[in-house]
Sequence to fold (142 residues):
Amino acid sequence: MKKGIEMHPVGQTRIEERAGASSWPWASPVRQRELRVRRGRLLAALLSLALPAPGPVMADDDAAVTRYAGGWVFDGERFQVRDLCVRANELVACPSTADAEIRVDGAYITPPFGDAHTHHFDGPGTLAWHTSMAFESGAFYA
Fold:
C-alpha cells in the first residue's frame, strides 16, 4: 500500500492510506486504539444511564435483630444510656426480645458523620450555635 502525508483541515498531519480508509484516518494506530477505548467507555456510560436505578436498601423484616445494650447514645442534646437495635444494618425500634445482644456498657455509641477533630469550640459562639451548625452540615457530634 502506498502512503502519503497530507495536512488535515485543522492543521493535524495525517497518514492517508490510498487502498482503504480507517474510521479515524488522521490518527496513528495508537491514537485510533485510544479513541476506540474512549468510544467504548462512553457507550458503556450511556448504556448504564438507561438501566433502572437501584431502590433504597430496606431492612429485611425476617432478618435478625441485634441489641446493643447499655451504651451512651447521643440524642441530639446530650449522651444518655440506652439500647440501640439493628436489623440488616438499619436502626429499628427495639423489640421486647432481640435475637442477639451485645453488651456495650459504658461505651459511647456515636452516629456516622461525626467531627472527631474540631476547633469550632475554641472561638466565640454558643454551644447551641455550634450544635445547630454541625447538624445542618450533617455532623451529629463533635
